Every structure is written in C-alpha cells, then in structure tokens.
Amino acid sequence: MSLKSKNDITNKRLTLINVMMKQVNIQFPLRMFGLILGLFLSVSAFAQIDVKGHVKDATGEPIIGV
Question: pTM of the full predicted structure?
C-alpha cells in the first residue's frame, strides 16, 4: 500500500468520525428536550383530579348552580 492510499484511508476515517460526532452533538439536545417535554406532560396529567362534594353557604343551604 502506498503512502497516498494510507493517507486517503486515514482522511476518510477522520471525516467519518467528524460526521458521527456532529450527529451525537445534535442528537443529545434533542433527546434532552424530549425527556423534559415528556416529564412536563406527565406531571400535568397527574394534576388533573376530580373533586366531588356539595357546596353550601354559611347557613348550611346548598348553593344552586355550583
């Protein structure tokens, strides 16, 4: 193998590594954004609760329409 072909192979490997590192650098923030978004959506889903009961005024009479 000549020196030129070894350099070409090395350059191709370095280019491939650089492309892979750029993909990792882009994917990490997207993954973090997805995780944080999922966390907020799940917390808001748990915040939805039902309250049951009767509303009465100071005299103990039920309030109509509430």
Answer: 0.37
